[in-house]
């Protein structure tokens, strides 16, 4: 049986001609790599998001469109046969101009998805042309023929079973004789409207498609050579991780290690597809393998940091020895679609942090109506400027003295909301944003350096 590999290249990996050429080398070096999903060229999605918000001033609007074209033209100029691809891309750029104009008066989530999808549509034209000129048997494919989602524009939910059936019908036959290049991030609802999976969603697309075609491996090529014991920008001594389990890697993605979109590992885990993460600029540096079974399960694997936390503390004497109070609180939160992340309780109070469920950036908000309803039940205090520090590892509870080691190191820090126990893989807490990096540096030194 033929083995299939799916490879995904992120925005920086397809930023320009030279970056795309490195992608072509990586693809060419592994004959099992049959399906390629890519992001928009670096910077393009952000520019398209700006247009989608509605840029009133025509000169400003045109200059954003010029900037987008400039990024793409720099690549087109390097082709030996640029004529056809230039025409195709000009056509999409005309659509961008049209949508951007419509967005001035009628911005909407649906229009936003239509606009931002153009970034991935264009980048796939470019990579296909480049691979073509190198003589590779390549075919561009519109993933909207397979990646069916609901109509929740901006953060659409993939329809797993239909995706599998559509992949069997529309995609697998192409893979026999071709390397297929297609778009990450975008999909289509049942009515044929373009949708997106949310910012950074290309990783998730790649995992969904890998699952649908029952791939043997998934490669995520990005701008860092894999996962590290912590962000090397915070701690230069951070060490690369050669191999990590799905559970640990999921915790890392969830708790702010920005390498993978948090949903990526769900389909990979469902189908037990090993995932490789590496740098397309320095493929020789290797990377991280994420697998079900790994050889070592250290107590301490890595440290992750997530900024912009919103902590809500609810207090009421009615909670004392009562029942049903928390149920009422969660009913209000559920009604207002507030997703809760961490939670700690005492006899008369409960503290929770809010999940960022949309792509607006910044700290997640407690909706004013939810706050009003909660205030009818208890006092409500909302605090910002907090960061979440997560220590990821395995069965820390079985390691005698681990708590002393962790908290002893942090004795000069004011720790809030310490959570441990629900998962054997993480311990986390909040600290003031201003000292969060310092907390990571101290912990890294104690737990990961000189051990
Ligand atoms: N181009 C999209 C973004 O910038 C999707 C992705 O890169 O994964 O969010
Ligand atoms: Mg990206």
From TrEMBL:
Matching entries from Gene3D superfamilies are given as: 3.30.70.260, Acetylglutamate kinase-like, Aspartokinase, catalytic domain
Domain of life (superkingdom): Bacteria
Q: What is its EC number?
A: 2.7.2.4
Residue ranges constituting the Aspartokinase ACT domain according to the UniProt record: 318-358, 389-447
Q: Which GO terms describe its molecular function?
A: aspartate kinase activity; ATP binding
Q: In which pathway does it act?
A: Amino-acid biosynthesis; L-lysine biosynthesis via DAP pathway; (S)-tetrahydrodipicolinate from L-aspartate: step 1/4; Amino-acid biosynthesis; L-threonine biosynthesis; L-threonine from L-aspartate: step 1/5; Amino-acid biosynthesis; L-methionine biosynthesis via de novo pathway; L-homoserine from L-aspartate: step 1/3
A GO cellular component annotation here is: cytosol
Biological processes per GO annotation: homoserine biosynthetic process; lysine biosynthetic process via diaminopimelate; threonine biosynthetic process
Q: Which UniProt keywords apply?
A: Amino-acid biosynthesis, ATP-binding, Kinase, Nucleotide-binding, Transferase
Task: Output the CDD domains linked to this UniProt entry.
Answer: ACT_AKiii-LysC-EC_2
**Which residues are noted in the entry as ATP-binding?**
8-11, 222-223, 228, 233
Sequence positions that bind substrate = 45, 120
Domain Aspartate/glutamate/uridylate kinase stretches: 5-278
The chemistry this enzyme catalyses reads: L-aspartate + ATP = 4-phospho-L-aspartate + ADP
- Per its UniProt entry, what is the enzyme's top EC class, as one word? transferase
Task: Return the similarity comment.
Answer: Belongs to the aspartokinase family.
Protein name per UniProt: Aspartokinase
Tell me the classification of the organism that encodes this protein: Bacteria, Pseudomonadati, Pseudomonadota, Gammaproteobacteria, Vibrionales
């Amino acid at each position: 049986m033929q083995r299939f590999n799916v490879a995904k290249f992120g925005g920086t990996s397809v930023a320009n001609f030279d970056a795309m050429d490195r992608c072509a080398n990586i693809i060419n070096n592994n004959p099992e790599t049959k399906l390629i999903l890519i992001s928009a060229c670096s910077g393009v999605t952000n520019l398209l998001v700006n247009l989608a918000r509605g840029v009133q001033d025509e000169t400003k609007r045109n200059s954003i469109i010029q900037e987008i074209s400039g990024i793409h033209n720099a690549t087109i100029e390097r082709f030996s046969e640029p004529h056809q691809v230039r025409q195709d891309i000009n056509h999409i750029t005309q659509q961008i101009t049209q949508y951007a104009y419509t967005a001035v008066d009628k911005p909407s989530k649906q229009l936003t998805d239509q606009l931002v999808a153009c970034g991935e549509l264009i980048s796939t034209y470019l990579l296909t042309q480049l691979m073509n000129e190198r003589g590779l048997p390549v075919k561009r494919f519109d993933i909207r023929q397979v990646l069916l989602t609901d109509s929740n524009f901006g953060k659409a939910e993939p329809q797993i079973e239909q995706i599998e059936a559509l992949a069997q019908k529309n995609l697998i036959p192409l893979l026999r004789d071709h390397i297929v290049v297609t778009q990450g991030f975008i999909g289509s609802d049942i009515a044929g409207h373009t949708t997106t999976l949310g910012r950074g969603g290309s990783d998730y697309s790649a995992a969904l498609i890998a699952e649908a075609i029952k791939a043997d491996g998934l490669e995520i090529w990005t701008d860092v050579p894999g996962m590290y014991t912590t962000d090397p920008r915070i701690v230069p001594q951070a060490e690369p991780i050669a191999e990590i389990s799905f559970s640990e890697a999921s915790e890392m993605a969830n708790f702010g290690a920005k390498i993978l979109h948090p949903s990526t590992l769900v389909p990979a885990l469902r189908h037990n597809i090993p995932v490789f993460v590496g740098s397309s600029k320095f493929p020789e540096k290797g990377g991280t393998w994420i697998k079900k079974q790994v050889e070592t399960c250290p107590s301490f694997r890595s440290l992750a940091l997530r900024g912009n936390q919103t902590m809500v503390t609810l207090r009421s004497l009615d909670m004392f020895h009562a029942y049903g109070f928390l149920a009422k609180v969660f009913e209000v939160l559920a009604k207002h679609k507030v997703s809760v992340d961490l939670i700690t309780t005492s006899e008369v109070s409960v503290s929770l942090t809010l999940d960022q469920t949309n792509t607006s950036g910044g700290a997640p908000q407690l909706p004013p109506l939810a706050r009003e309803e909660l205030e009818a039940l208890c006092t409500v205090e909302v605090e910002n400027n907090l960061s979440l520090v997560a220590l990821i590892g395995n069965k820390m509870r079985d390691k005698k003295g681990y708590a002393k080691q962790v908290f002893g190191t942090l004795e000069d820090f004011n720790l809030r909301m310490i959570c441990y126990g629900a998962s054997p893989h993480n311990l986390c807490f909040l600290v003031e944003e201003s000292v969060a990096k310092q907390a990571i540096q101290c912990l890294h030194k104690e737990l990961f350096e000189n051990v």
